[in-house]
């Protein structure tokens, strides 16, 4: 029988996607007979943005065996308990999408059904008062959720990081190289394909060196050197739902203690991010070029900076959408080459991580079994669609009518999958998590409620609990949240202790 095992893996690109893939493969494919080669071009460079993450990165870091405090020191990371959205539902409004649950289930129902009933009774505090991590974050407090009284007192929570993605990629490079990955510096100028199968056979660098491979991972960024420029895999354009197509990023000095959350402030033709790191604050303006010029976008960003600038503006162009076949023949696209969803919910690094996990699950041999490839592509498409719908929700669930951009977003046609979800929630407050999707009921509730979508009714089973019992439980949760918050450290103090 022929030996069908993959022996030569070539990763094209050394941005966050390339080095995350290389580090994970070095860890998971430990085999002297498998060579992993990463090619990157310093002359081309990386996109150089991407600072906020979601809690799933904890699993990735654990897979690599990273020591968390060392990782945080190396990447100048701060803790992230969620995202604060300012001016999204309406001007002057704000809410936090937290990485932790509201209250606790009652009668096996999600907490918000009981809260809606309690609210109708005229007794409820604002929903946030039943969420430990939201209340703590608002006061600039954060502490890791490890046992003790904090966890016992109320809903569980998780956390993520805000970090310097360039430093993260450098750190992962060390891990990957220590695990046997060979790095080649240089620009690929030619790609050769097998005439019969159309598979990529080798890439040739400007130096003349040719690198053959069995499996190619395209981490070449927006250009999609192999997946698009060579294999023309196609792109599904979602810019009608997500019209922002540009960003300008710029760092400034941090002038206040770091908050344990990312802030996303809606602007007249897009939104601005503010991400506190240990060493600086990352800022950016994501905007729609149909409604605002690059100069205006930069002016707006500069106006809102907290401190003196520490970098030149970095302008980026993009289009929302997904690659039609992110796995095509013997090429798998990971990172920006596989699709792009704007960074409103900090999902890109997660999409890299989940593509790596999916590839490992479906790791091929040289037959490149088409049903496996089809399965991988269907899963990728579904994941992108689910994240897309969640991001679109922030734009369509708005009452803003103060600019042509918001008038477009408020009235645009939305994906049917999202319209169905909104219809169900608006009627009877039900939230469904489809197929183990990334964003759970807490996330959907935070944004729906935060942007003033109020359901007509709640779940009928929420009426079963006697009113007195409901009141007792609600007061207990509220008290536990307040007590838990009072025990928490200030984020800068906890961070300082943790990284020392
Ligand atoms: C405005 C903006 C904000 C973002 N914010 C976040 C965020 O907060 N959180 C988050 O998770 N994600 C964020 N992202 C996404 C994040 O930046 C990317 O997912 C991440 O950086 C991965 O990029 P990449 O590695 O796919 O591509 P790139 O960083 O572009 O890397 C491409 C690599 O390919 C190499 N290359 C290309 N062509 C060739 C060639 N011909 N020869 C050799 N090498 C080549 C380049 O040298 C480079 O090493 C943001 C993105 C944008 C645009």
Automatic annotation (TrEMBL):
The active site is at residue 80. Keywords: FAD, Flavoprotein, Nucleotide-binding. InterPro entries: FAD/NAD-bd_sf, Flavin-dep_Halogenase_NPB, Flavin_halogenase, Trp_halogen. 7-chloro-L-tryptophan binds at residue 80. The keyword Nucleotide-binding applies. One of its GO terms (molecular function) is nucleotide binding. The keyword Transcription regulation does not apply. It comes from the Bacteria. FAD binds at residues 14-17, 336, 349. SUPFAM superfamilies: FAD/NAD(P)-binding domain (SSF51905). It holds the Pfam family Trp_halogenase. L-tryptophan binds at residue 345. This is Tryptophan halogenase. It comes from Asticcacaulis taihuensis.
